[in-house]
Amino acid sequence: MAANLIARSVHDLTAAAWFGGSLMGAVGLNGAAAEAKDPAERTRLSALGWKKWAPVQAGAIGLHLLAGLALVGDNKTRVAKQEGVGALTVYKTAVTVLAAVATLYSGILGSKVGKLAEEGGQGATEPREGASKELKSAQRQLKILQWSLPVLSGAVIVMGAQHGEMQRPANVLKGLKN
């Protein structure tokens, strides 16, 4: 029981960090950086903030995946036999992997913006007239990703809550009877 409690806690806390960090970055960090007077500072400060957050985010994602594997291993009978649990596990895994890949790609794009920060921007993810095609492309993609990441990581949290609901005794019995 203690191992499951630890795995579940790590799984939930890391998903929360992933969601919260992504949302705060999009709203707070990128929003604040967009207010800088110097256009080069807008991109530089945003890139620096995301670079500082990246190790925490990567650690959260890695621990989330490990804890998820532990939970699936501990619940393998329910995953195999309780109606709906296996399918939800597959969907949640797919969304988690998609979110991890999107986060990694976001980091690659953020590094690109950081390297081109002196070109500046209207905002952290809004290109400026005269910026290179490379910077404009990275910023436009980041504008989409900055909102996709909280949506995807939030979906992981919601599916985790659904897994929790499926563990209620009445739901386990109902799922095993069918």
Automatic annotation (TrEMBL):
Keywords: Membrane, Transmembrane, Transmembrane helix
Membrane-spanning intervals of the chain: 12-33, 53-73, 85-108
Superkingdom assignment: Bacteria
Name of the protein this chain belongs to: Uncharacterized protein
Organism for this UniProt entry: Arthrobacter yangruifuii
